[in-house]
Amino acid sequence: MAATMAGVSLSSPRVIFKGPESLQKSQAIRSGPVFMLNQRWTGAVSSGRMVSIRPVQASPDITGKVEESIKSAEETCAGDATSGECVAAWDEVEELSAAASHARDKKKTSDPLEEYCKDNPETDECRTYDN
Amino acid sequence: MAACTVYSTQPLRTNISIPTSSKTHVGFNQKQVVFYTTTKKSSNRRTNSNNRRYLITCGAGDSQTIVIGLAADSGCGKSTFMRRLTSVFGGAAEPPKGGNPDSNTLISDTTTVICLDDYHSLDRTGRKEKGVTALDPRANDFDLMYEQVKAIKEGVSVQKPIYNHVTGLLDPPELIKPPKILVIEGLHPMYDSRVRDLLDFSIYLDISNEVKFAWKIQRDMAERGHSLESIKASIEARKPDFEAYIDPQKQYADAVIEVLPTQLIPDDNEGKILRVRLIQKEGVKYFSPVYLFDDGSTISWIPCGRKLTCSYPGIKFSYGPETYKGNEVSVVEMDGQFDRLDELIYVESHLSNLSSKFYGEVTQQMLKHADFPGSNNGTGLFQTIVGLKIRDLFEQIVASRAETPVGAAKA
Fold first, then answer.
1. Which pLDDT tens digit goes with each residue over A19-51?
2. Chain A contacts of B238, Cβ < 8 Å?
3. Torsion angle, CA of B35/B37/B41/B43, rounded to 10 degrees?
4. Are B240 and A87 within 8 A, CB to CB?
5. Which one, of B35, B285, B239, lies nearest residue A87 by Cα?
6. CB distance from B165 to chain A under 8 Å?
7. Model's pTM, two decimal places?
8. What are the structural domains, with CATH classification, of chain B?
9. Residue in A58, A87, A92 nearest the CB of B124
């Protein structure tokens, strides 16, 4: 059953991205029915909801930094593998990898609605009914 | 140990005492009594010299912070440990709201976790120029670390620098208010002897090289740019500094959690099943080690059998006294994995001296965080148990401080 919302059809599920990093990081994307929150519903949708899936990878600047640091470490160590510079370069790689993995974990667990509701619990979207 | 801190103040003409009650950010009441004396009156037994004025701040028994140190190499599960620890005390630890988004600090109702990377004296470029790693003591400001931890322990807020791991720069400082429990985690909590003396309890997470390699592969292979060779090179390059500066801290730790590859599967190199040893120092004040069946004897125990069925490779426990780095220790060891809830509760019911408040508390904590890494093996189990031990330590210290009469210490 096809329904169109903001230019996306349900019949052929496509993944909608939010954010600049999405375009390059296609390899980490899982395909499947997509859901869209906070979007105007222009047409009727028979079943299912739409939400945007974020690729679970660190933001481009950290990933880029990790790659750069690895390259520069390999270059530095090509000369002298035991020098202080070489060791410091690999230490930098380690530090950036750790930062990248933390960023990935943070992204994995961050839900845009939950984040918004944490700061604004009184808004309509965030009201909870316990009884 | 006095619960009051005395500060020298500017001289005042009159003799005033003002009792005030203020709520600190952790929500407990602190009574602050301010005494001012003039030069003429020297009869106050709290002042020894005529010419000094004293501001005496007296807190209720739990005003002084207890300090826990946690040491481990990066990428070794410290943040998981932190989350388990703060969960034992109740509440979730979160970065400070409204501050630097790249802050490394975590704050919950009772606990504040400070990352010792914030005391780097050299930022990333500085270290690169000098050719030192972050593991090197030359890259860290131990004087500032000591001053600030001491200040927080005494109930004084500090402006702590922030080391931004993303940019590699030192950011403007953030305010840290004294919590009930302060945890300092990082590479060098026990390196400096002055800081070591401030710690009420210290833990070292010792991951063996094989397991470290396996964990780092898991962490880094998803990142573009990394290959097996680069991960290996990174570990190898840091090894000399690690063994020179970080590893020796093991001997000072009150508890060491050692993670090794399993012995249940011969020639296992997948690193999925872990053998974890909880090495507990004997004779530490307020800390009574966990034991199995009989304190001080050597036990080897396989819980799987008639009452409990486990899947391959099963679970094996052992307990016994040992000598570790010249100290008398008691070691509880777990090799294998938990598959089911009833295995966990069965094991918990046979461990003694857990400092749990009710039957099944360890199991409940493990289940609460079933999605954390290590929740099905000894790492999660022993981290949770250490968390309970720290809570017990905290309560004992608070109780003992409430007993000592409130007196003044000279500034």
1. 444 444 444 444 444 444 444 444 444 444 444
2. 87, 90-91, 94
3. 30
4. yes
5. B239
6. yes
7. 0.74
8. 62-205 (3.40.50.300), 254-399 (no CATH)
9. A92
